TrEMBL record:
Protein role: Purine salvage pathway enzyme that catalyzes the transfer of the ribosyl-5-phosphate group from 5-phospho-alpha-D-ribose 1-diphosphate (PRPP) to the N9 position of the 6-oxopurines hypoxanthine and guanine to form the corresponding ribonucleotides IMP (inosine 5'-monophosphate) and GMP (guanosine 5'-monophosphate), with the release of PPi.
SUPFAM superfamilies: PRTase-like
Cofactor list: Mg(2+)
EC number: 2.4.2.8
Alphabetical list of NCBIfam families matching this protein: HGPRTase
Entry GO terms, CC: cytosol
Protein's pathway: Purine metabolism; GMP biosynthesis via salvage pathway; GMP from guanine: step 1/1; Purine metabolism; IMP biosynthesis via salvage pathway; IMP from hypoxanthine: step 1/1
Reactions this protein catalyses: GMP + diphosphate = guanine + 5-phospho-alpha-D-ribose 1-diphosphate; IMP + diphosphate = hypoxanthine + 5-phospho-alpha-D-ribose 1-diphosphate
GO MF terms, alphabetically ordered: guanine phosphoribosyltransferase activity; hypoxanthine phosphoribosyltransferase activity; magnesium ion binding; nucleotide binding
Protein name listed in UniProt: Hypoxanthine phosphoribosyltransferase
One record GO biological process: IMP salvage
Amino acid sequence: MDNDIQEVLYDQESIQKAAERLGKQITQDYAGSTPLFLSVLKGAYLWTADLLREVDLYAELEFIKISSYHGGVSSSDEITLVTDVRSDVRGRDVIILEDIVDTGQSLLFLKELLAKRGAKSIKVATLLDKIEGRKVEVDADYAGFNVRNEFVVGYGLDYEEHYRNLPYVGILKKEVYTK
């Protein structure tokens, strides 16, 4: 798999430092609260584990699965709710945990869904923020890294369900996904 990577952008040590930095900030921002962390599957599972270990609060964890890629290398305009959250979010502080915020369409979908269900507040903690890729106006409240407009994999991010298990985030060589 390493041979398919053009460039490693963020290694495990850098990612861990980002998790520590954001974990401390979230701990400060939510002192006295019990936030609901909502991990977006499948991509955010590693980021969720690392970030939550750095948060010193009583907290709850839920998972939600949406799909926007449908097998390609760019997000489609169609968002599908695959697996819904089980907890009632009404009156709760919710922190969405994302692997990457790219077009913003998936995040906007989730924020609107949670707002409609009565969440008290909705914030976003993402490993990667690809601001250049935005199609809609939505922001990450906590971002590990700003990433340039490249197709990245590893550390939970995939191409056709591969590369999630790489211990780093890297740029996938174009010849891999343009075959």
